[in-house]
Amino acid sequence: MKTLSLDESSLIEKSKAGDVESFEELIISHKKKIFNIAYRMLGNLEDANDVTQEALVKAYRGIKKFNEKSSFSTWLYTIVNNACIDFIRKNRKDNVVYLDREYETEESSYTLQINSGEETPEQAFEKKEVQRLVHKAINKLSDDHRRIIILKDIKQFSYKEISEIIDCSEGTVKSRLSRARKNLKTIIEENLKN
Amino acid sequence: MNCKDFDLYASAYIDNMISDEEKLDFENHINKCENCKVAFQNLKIIVKSTNNIEEVELPQNFSDELRQKLEAENTCKSENKFPNKIKILTGVVAGLLITVMSLSLLNNYLINQNMDKQMDIAKTERNNNIKENSEFKTESEELTQERKVAPKTMSIESFDENNEAELDNTTASEDKAKVQGEIPKENKIKIVNPVITSILVLGIGFFIYRFLRR
Ligand SMILES: [Zn+2]
């Protein structure tokens, strides 16, 4: 996410001229990441595939307008973010989030290791429990909160990069992220109590 | 800080997006407040777990599917799109042709106006000769009027410039010679115009052709 490397900028030039192979090389290190962002955002593999393909075609179509002063990857992830938002708007009439079956079965086979005599809900919990619950809890977050958790905690973008991708200030990233993490924590804690 | 600020401080602390002062403030509070201490430990565990979520693999045919879509994108483009440079060039040529057209029309108009005046002057002059220069003042007024028109056309008919400049100080008889000299020029305009017009027609035709093919 720094300035353009020489390789990257020559691949961009070739892509602008319509060279498919150069474009494929340009996105080779991003496509899995993009797919995973879409997967976490949308909750299932099929939609993630559709949206990732669509976003990459859009990027290829729009690369002529890409200004090399900005970061290619930020530009690319902005397109992906918008594609996810569009897809959610079009396809999710109710606010239900669909969980993948693999996680549903995983959850049913797993038993909580929490003591029934627990008094404080703030009791520290164990990591392995949390890891299983995180998948499920992320999908229960609002779109905005889920997005920021995906970008920061799953994909490890910086505050600055996130502010560019979702087009807001770094201050907004900071406060939204703190609220998203708080909600995530609340969801997990409630799951542990039940 | 107090417990209310916990969420913002804790989250920024984990990312190291906090000032040294705030950091110290937060650490002091955590050491005193058991609730926030536990909450912070839990938050750290959650963030760490989220960091460790493993990636899913791309679908097997992902790259093939993408390749097909990108290539389809290319064929769509080449069917209805000229390279940008040619497009820009076409635009420039069309713009130039339009400029030439409007200039030549304007030029024509001014020349005609000019000619009319000169004809008038010539007539007046002939009358004057008959009247033996009795109305010399009126004529010189007309001459100055003509001078006002002349500069506009000067750059285009530079070969006339001298003639017209001379007019400034001429007597009526010199002017007569000038009017005679104008007549071949009128013919010249008629010769030039079809050329410009045909270039224009070709240019506009070319432009429309490009536009339709787009
Ligand atoms: Zn506290």
Describe this structure in words.
- The complex is a heterodimer of chains A (194) and B (214).
- Chain A is mainly α and 194 residues long.
- Chain A has 10 helices and no strands.
- Chain A is elongated, with a radius of gyration of 19 Å.
- Chain B has 8 helices and no strands.
- Chain B has helices at 6-14, 20-32, 34-51, 62-80, 84-130, 136-154, 158-167, 172-213.
- Chain B starts with 5 loop residues before the first helix and ends with a helix.
- Classes of the chains: A mainly alpha (194), B mainly alpha (214).
- Chains A and B meet through helix 2, helix 3, helix 4, helix 7 and helix 8 of A and helix 1, helix 3 and helix 4 of B.
- The site of zinc ion (ZN) has 6 residues of chain B, from helix 3.
- Zinc ion binds next to helix 3 of chain B.
Write a compact overview of the structure shown.
Helix content of chain A is 69%, strand content 0%. Chain A is mostly helical and 194 residues long.
Helix-strand pattern of chain A: HHHHHHHHHH
Number of helices of chain A: 10
Query: Element order, helices and strands of chain B?
Result: HHHHHHHH
The structural class of chain B is mainly alpha
Helix content of chain A: 55-70%
Shape of chain B: elongated
Name the quaternary structure.
heterodimer
Task: Write the SSE topology.
The complex is a heterodimer of chains A (194) and B (214).
Chain A: H1 6-16, H2 20-26, H3 31-42, H4 45-62, H5 72-91, H6 101-108, H7 127-140, H8 143-154, H9 159-165, H10 170-193
Helix pairs in contact in A: 1-2, 3-4, 3-5, 4-5, 5-9, 6-7, 7-10, 8-10, 9-10
Chain B: H1 6-14, H2 20-32, H3 34-51, H4 62-80, H5 84-130, H6 136-154, H7 158-167, H8 172-213
Bound molecules: zinc ion.
Zinc ion is lined by residues 3, 6, 29, 33, 35-36 of chain B.
What brief labels describe this structure?
heterodimer, A: mainly alpha, Rna Polymerase Sigma Factor, Chain: A, Arc Repressor Mutant, subunit A, 2 domains, elongated, B: 214 residues, 8 helices
